[in-house]
Amino acid sequence: MGRTTSATTKRCTDIVSNPERMTVEIVSLVTDVKGCQPMDLEPLSNVTDPDALENLIRETAAGEFEIGFDYEGGRLSISSDGTIEFDLSVDRST
Prior knowledge:
Elements: E1 3-11, H1 14-17, H2 22-34, H3 50-59, E2 66-71, E3 74-79, E4 83-91
């Protein structure tokens, strides 16, 4: 068949002022892109420390950062401006 690529970006400026929402926003974005339910996802805590991500946002509110990690077959990126991006690439050639 070939390669299908899907990228979705969600800007969540409320995570800058409310870092506790970040996990909810990540799950929402990934389930939207993958077309699945939250219970179908691997727990986020299996691939990163959600508390550490929240602390990073809280402690660098005046600074800039971008962090990324692999999750659910894609690449998840979080920026200090509140942008959460999930790039999902699926190779269907096998």
